Amino acid sequence: MTSAAPTSRHRLAEIGALLAEPARAGILLALIDGSARPAGELAALAGVAPATASAHLQRLVAGGLLALHAQGRHRYFRLAGEDVAHLVETLALAGAHAPAAAAVSPADTPLRRARTCYRHLAGRLGVALFERLRERDALELGSDAIRLSAAGARWLHDAGLFDDDEGLALAGRSCVDWTERRFHLAGALGNRLAERLFERGWLRPRRDSRALALGARGDAGLRALGIDWTRL
């Protein structure tokens, strides 16, 4: 056994303990869209008193799962990085074989249709977009990364999303979607694609939610890619 083994074992146990408390798990899920939120807002989202939320936030920061950003007199919390978002989404899949009663409720339908996972797209829309990219041979699936192909760059350019060869140098990765149990596109390439969908007015965030709504130009844009929003 190497000297690194006990450290890895204890670190894993520490992370597990941080995630085992429902309020802390709720805080992490509330921040998985990459947003930065104040303690009071996170307390309300987690359903706990401000003092309780403060204690949880301190533990999450100390444990390396959250980062604290101070702006004047205000303090905002965000996930410490995309690796933390990926961890949370992946662990949510641990109940994939749980009884049907644990399935996502109808009230979560907007989240299942389209949402952000840190800075990339998830839900049915994220899965559908990844599948369309693969069907169009728009992606090159390497052993260590997913990259946009020349054909993919042209396709996204013709759709009005990317400029010229934008995206060719970006690396992406597949991420298992915790509600759909299929893959969506993450990493730098997935992040940039999501940014363009917002900038072009295809998608817009819902108020106080990670769920996404269709933007003014979204219906026509998505249909041009072969995706029907009404069927998601």
Task: Give the neighbour order of strands across the main sheet.
Answer: 6-7-8-9
What is the tally of helical segments? 10
What's the shape? Answer: globular
Question: What is the count of structural domains?
Answer: 2
The average pLDDT value, as a whole number, equals 87
How many E-type strands? 11
Strand content: 15-25%
Order of helices and strands: HHEHHEEHHEEHEEHEEHEEH
Point out poorly predicted stretches.
1-5, 97-107
Helix/sheet category = alpha+beta
Using the CA coordinates, give the radius of gyration: 19 Å
| Proportion of residues in helical segments | 40-55%
- Gap from first CA to last CA: 49 Å
Biggest sheet, in brief?
4 strands, antiparallel
Pfam families: HTH_20
Protein name: DNA-binding transcriptional ArsR family regulator
GO molecular function, one term: DNA binding
Domain HTH arsR-type: 4-99
